[in-house]
Amino acid sequence: MIRVEVCASCKGYKLLCGLPRCPILERARFVREVELRVGGEVYGATPPSTLVGEHGYPHVRVMFNVPPGETGDPARIHDDPPSWWGRAGLEDIIRFRATMLYSTVRADARRPADLYSREIPLAAVSQRPTEAEVSVARRPNARVTFSLRELPIGPTAPASRVRIVGNPRVPRALERLIWDDVPAGEAVGELYARGVDVYVIQRALAMGLLGAPRRRRLVPTRWAITAVDVMVGDMLMRRVRRMPWLDHVMAGSLTYLANEFFVMLVPGPWRALWVELWSPAVFSAAGNYITIVNREDVRGRRRSMDGGYEAARLAVLEGLAGLGRQATAIIVRRIRPEYYVGVGNWHVRETVRRLMGNLRRYQSVDEALQSHELGSVAGRYLREYGGTPLDAFL
Description:
Elements: H1 4-10, H2 23-37, E1 41-46, E2 50-52, E3 59-66, H3 81-84, H4 90-98, E4 101-108, H5 113-116, H6 120-124, E5 130-136, E6 156-164, H7 172-178, H8 184-193, H9 198-206, H10 221-240, E7 249-256, E8 259-267, E9 271-278, E10 290-296, H11 307-323, E11 327-335, H12 346-356, E12 360-362, H13 365-370, H14 375-384
Parallel strand pairs: 4-6, 9-11
Antiparallel strand pairs: 1-5, 2-3, 3-4, 5-6, 7-8, 7-12, 8-11, 9-10
Helix pairs in contact: 2-4, 8-10, 9-10, 10-11, 11-12
């Protein structure tokens, strides 16, 4: 990551880190807007937006997030990744996120039912923004923190009271499962099969609404996101593995938020190679791209658990299920220096989803690799892992 001494010398104006904008100043500017609008009482509609922290687990902070003074459907834009794709840039996303108040309540992850009486979990899984009143115990803390792998957050303040004013509209399939004794994995699969949005399922798992009642827990949001991607991806994988092999090579590429993606599908059993390249400038380091490689074999065994790969894997498997075919997948992600603030893995999932809908057919692996700039990167790693025709790359 960027060294502290670089920031101290730069002060946000010299751009010594090599990034096009100072991520600290970008977020601080929007956070200040919220500070000026927050008094002791805050009224607004959660998009919905909640976060369960992981520090100190099982004693965690739960953030209930509202844009001060904004109500109704316009509040949705503050936490609506599918609608952001292709329309919102990094600065837009920072503004959407940083102009919410992140009110915090303490909770025991082993007792999610303690939050049920406040209706916070139901507001978190509503299909529309839900109005709420929040009483803050002190002025918001505008301390600036950011990560290249997580969404930015706005000012935080402990909440002395959170009262849900509106009526959450919970998907009917989810509402039934909240009161049923169904294992969490089975519940996630059923909700996805019934068309419940994957982001709603992620929040439901995080807020302790799924699973056998006696075993339910609040799940840190970062863990819940990857867990849902894994569970849904595994369900799709079992379906795809029963399908006939793709009978030709397909490939495509797509770029969003300074992240470039390349996907190639090759006739064969389901397995995958993931190559992630981080620009040196992102980490303020000299030398070549920082490379992360992950592999999944025909049994679904991964070399490591990686949130970015699991998000991309879900999207690829959705595409294959839609085609009614099984294939071997090669996925490359390259992160350019312009990606100066992380926004989480939602954009990986959404970009690869759209990429899968625009794949082209090629006569051979070599033709597919040569037709895309990132194909040369894929080719290099394929040669290292056995070369084409991919008979041993895993």
